[in-house]
Design a protein that fits this description.
With 235 residues, this protein is mainly alpha-helical. It is 66% helix and 0% strand. The longest helix is centred in the last third of the chain and has 22 residues. Keywords: Membrane, Transmembrane, Transmembrane helix.
């Protein structure tokens, strides 16, 4: 399913659940719902979430910086022959396709969170480790499982439990809705690996006309649910 559809469905359903359950729909809850609706696709560098967080302009800037950095390392780092090897490595990275460069950036950000992020928040160590792990995963792998849902909801719960349940409920629901939506596709998901059990309704294939119809139907159903949940506020 396309990222736009995941964003609307996951966010719409999760916020409607909050409203119907009598929980406050706060700005932090909306934020984690938006992130959670796209987060399972963090294992795909060209997904909506990753491509917006690491846009093409940033990738081009990185490529522009890497070549002069390679030249600087070769001429000004006095550690032969390691300076040559490091300069070659940096130069090679600059010519990687944007998909691969996004993985490199994700890994670097995760590494930074592991080594320096704990000074700001202890859970940055876990977040950084998970981010680095995601660069090694295949699409619709570990992030598209019940384990991934539990980790995301658990992180939200452990860091926001004093602010009320609406934050982790919104984030966890949005994440779960992403998995449910992907289960409608012909590929489906494996919710409990290493078990081979797969949830696959096989209604659509992403990017096809039939897929667009199914996605639009899901979006309309989400809007109807949102209307049922929020319309009393305006009547």
């Amino acid at each position: 399913m396309m990222g736009r559809s995941h964003l609307i469905i996951g966010t719409g359903v999760s916020l409607s659940v909050l409203q119907l359950a009598g929980m406050p729909v706060t700005a932090p809850a909306v934020t984690v719902a938006l992130i959670g609706s796209l987060l399972p696709d963090i294992d795909e560098p060209n997904s909506l979430l990753v491509s917006r967080a690491l846009p093409n302009s940033l990738i081009r800037l990185l490529q522009t910086i890497l070549l002069p950095t390679a030249v600087f390392v070769y001429f000004y780092v006095h550690a032969k022959p390691w300076n040559l090897l490091l300069a070659i490595l940096i130069a090679l990275v600059s010519f990687l396709p944007s998909r691969s460069l996004r993985k490199v950036l994700m890994f670097a950000i995760g590494l930074g969170l592991v080594f320096y992020g704990h000074a700001f928040a202890p859970w940055n160590l876990i977040a950084g480790s998970l981010l680095m792990l995601c660069t090694t995963l295949t699409h619709r792998g570990l992030t598209h499982t019940l384990y991934g849902t539990a980790v995301w909801a658990g992180l939200l719960y452990s860091t926001t439990q004093q602010q009320g349940p609406e934050i982790w409920v919104a984030g966890g629901t949005a994440y779960a809705m992403h998995l449910l939506a992907d289960s409608l596709t012909n590929r489906g998901i494996r919710p409990l690996p290493p078990l081979k059990w797969r949830i696959r309704v096989n209604l659509m294939s992403t990017g096809t006309k039939r897929g667009a119809v199914v996605e639009n139907v899901c979006i309309v159903l989400t809007l109807i649910l949102a209307w049922i949940a929020f319309s009393p506020l305006f009547l």
